[in-house]
Amino acid sequence: MLHGFSSCGILESQYQGFAEAAKIGNVGDKYIDYVYGTMGYMQTVLKAGDDCMTEQIYEVQNTDSYQQRNGVPMHTIQQWQCCVMRLTVIEVAHDFVLKIKNWLWTLNIQNSFDTWHEASVKCHFYYSMKNCTSPDNLRRRLLTILDHYQGNHTNCDPDSKCKNPGYRCSKVKLNNPRAIAALHKFILDSKVYKLAEDYYLCCDTYWVESFNNVILIYCPKRIHFSDRTFNIRIALAVMDWNENVNREATTISLIQDVHRPTRRTGHKNLYQKLSSSGS
Ligand SMILES: [Zn+2]
């Protein structure tokens, strides 16, 4: 019962309130303490959580990308976040906070700002960040935006759509010198151009944000938990995340959204979540 309500994300007080109102009987505080301590529930969950993280770390250390770069690959940041002390960190991606950048600089760790928070000429900026090979290359690619909108595609990427025969730009061609100067200034003033060294690896913090959402299922921000309960709930969140991250989708629904009419990726209907590590 205790494991049931902890794993489904409801709180001890919510469970007790519900069970009392429904008159179905409930376990009391003393019994919960007994299960946590004497019966060893706490130690079992903490050990299972630790084993789960150790297993994932071992998996990361054996990936080609980790061995080639001797650091943490982007998609396993969630494992790094849990166990930073046991992996060699060479790069950290985060939202735009200069203090963190300066701190990482003192530790000789590559800084990357989250790409999601930047860029108004979005597609071009993202495309440039994703395909560039160095900070200078990123700057050069960003400047091709200027020529592209004037109808000159000589320097555009060979894989770009504008290289296809018969390509027609969906935007109005830029002819007005003041508009061209404004776009040029916009590119030069953008954070991505100025701080290309912090964007050229094209990192984002999606995985960390997603993992934080899973933590919130078990540990809502507005509730103050005791250390004992907090640690158990974090361990359950880690097991939930590690077991269910990147699970396959059964189908993809193509739903038209009036707010995002150009969206074509569709909505993934995922397989049901597993909870074998928590059982
Ligand atoms: Zn072009």
Provide structural commentary.
This protein has about 280 residues and is mainly α. About 50% of the residues lie in helices and about 5% in strands. The protein has helices at about 1-5, 10-20, 30-35, 40-60, 65-70, 75-80, 100-105, 120-130, 135-150, 175-190, 190-195, 205-220, 225-245; strands at about 90-95, 110-115, 250-255, 265-270. A two-stranded parallel sheet has the order 1-2. Strand 1, helix 7 (about 100-105) and strand 2 (about 110-115) form a beta-alpha-beta unit. Helix 12 crosses helix 13. It starts with a helix and ends in a 9-residue tail after the last strand. Mean pLDDT is about 80; it is low at about 70-80. Zinc ion binds near residues 148, 153, 156, 160 and 162. Zinc ion (ZN) binds near residues 148 and 156. This is Orexin receptor type 2. It comes from Desmophyllum pertusum. Keywords: Receptor.
Brief synopsis:
The chain has about 280 residues and is mainly alpha-helical.
Oligomer: single chain
Computed Rg: 25 Å
* Helix-strand string: HHHHHHEHEHHHHHHEE
Coarse morphology: elongated
Report the average pLDDT across residues. Answer: 81
Mind summarizing the main beta sheet? 2 strands, parallel
The number of helical runs is: 13
Strand order of the largest sheet: 1-2
Number of strands: 4
Task: Briefly note the structural class of the backbone.
Answer: mainly alpha
What share of residues are in beta strands? 5-15%
Protein name: Orexin receptor type 2
Keywords: Receptor
